[in-house]
Write a structure and sequence with these properties.
This protein is mainly α and 333 residues long. The protein has 16 helices and no strands. It is 62% helix and 0% strand.
Length: 333
């Protein structure tokens, strides 16, 4: 028996009836031979980790643009924290941890430079709009691996696309990532905002803390336990009503005090102008796109090619490109 077949048998024996087994996958966009060692979902996780888009996440903004401190989150550390929370929930509920991890690691691959500031401006300027979850699927389907795509399974692609927005993932594993993302960014952004002096512990809404916990670690632990208790032997992933309402109130507090108009966001207007100017520049000068993106423009149109190029930039690469295009350089004669 191949190792993969042994692992698939373990899934059948030990996972919950509500789990998505790797043998039950709806398959890949293109058929391919199976791995002798890894299940399909393990293989997807590995492909995401080895992707260029995953490595670029370390230089993309989470909340603070170009923070000086070494301990502020980046899009990569956020992704790893989502993965950790999601895996804990999945393992406790006897769901497919490999599928959960693959979705979590890939959920933000299509995020723009400068976080949601970059997303907002591209959504405004692009005629067909821009959503980072949808672009994450395009990254894994087409842009990665020298524009061949990673050829991931349907379940991983669905979980990535539906980790935010109106559509719910078709698997419980995808639903776990959707709720783990919220747990991660609310609590970790609180910690970063307190570290940066944007808010203090005393500013946090007391009624929320009474339900969820006073400390960073207590809140995360309590939210995870609450989800496990309320999702046990159920075909859905959910919090109790009390925890759900307290979490939404805490999220509302973060939007009002950190995500919009705070000192943490004082550089966002500059970032938006930078991304906007780069987008418009390459729309008007598509011949200056890298060769691979010029080829995309021939099949998918100039606007899509420019969107792919700009959205894939890291913060620092976007700054360098802006300087190269718009900032005069000294010259000798």
């Amino acid at each position: 028996m191949k190792i993969r077949e042994y692992l698939e048998e373990l899934e059948r024996k030990h996972l919950s009836p509500f789990a998505c087994l790797s043998t039950q996958s709806r398959g890949r966009l293109k058929e391919e031979e199976k791995c002798d060692v890894r299940t399909d979902f393990q293989r997807d996780r590995d492909r995401i980790i080895y992707s260029k888009a995953f490595r670029r996440l370390k230089h993309k903004t989470q909340v603070f643009i170009s923070p000086e401190g070494d301990h502020y989150r980046t899009r990569l550390t956020h992704t790893l924290e989502v993965s950790q929370i999601a895996r804990t929930i999945a393992r406790s509920l006897r769901l497919n941890e490999d599928l959960t991890e693959a979705i979590a690691l890939g959920h933000d691959l299509g995020h723009t430079p400068f976080g949601h500031a970059g997303e907002r401006v591209l959504d405004k300027l692009c005629s067909f709009g821009f959503k980072h979850n949808e672009h994450s699927v395009r990254v894994v389907d087409k842009l990665e691996k020298d524009f061949k795509g990673l050829n991931l399974t349907f379940e991983v692609r669905d979980g990535i696309r539906c980790h935010t927005g109106n559509d719910m993932p078709v698997t419980l594993e995808g639903q776990i990532v959707r709720i783990a993302d919220k747990i991660a960014y609310i609590n970790h952004d609180i910690e970063d905002a307190i570290r940066g002096g944007v808010i203090s512990q005393d500013d946090l809404p007391e009624e929320c803390l009474k339900v969820l916990g006073n400390t960073h670690s207590d809140r995360i632990n309590n939210m995870i336990v609450n989800i496990i208790e309320n999702s046990w032997n159920e075909n859905c992933i959910r919090m109790s009503q009390e925890y759900h309402e307290a979490t939404n109130e805490l999220r509302k507090f973060m939007f009002e005090n950190v995500y919009i108009g705070s000192i943490a966001k004082k550089e966002e207007a500059k970032a938006e102008r930078m991304i906007g100017e780069l987008f418009l520049y390459f729309i008007n000068n598509p011949h200056e796109l890298p060769e691979a993106f010029r080829k995309i423009s021939e099949t998918d149109g100039v606007e899509q090619a420019v969107l792919d190029y700009v959205a894939g930039m890291t913060d620092r690469f976007a700054v360098r490109q802006f300087q190269k295009v718009f900032v005069p350089v000294s010259w000798l004669y």
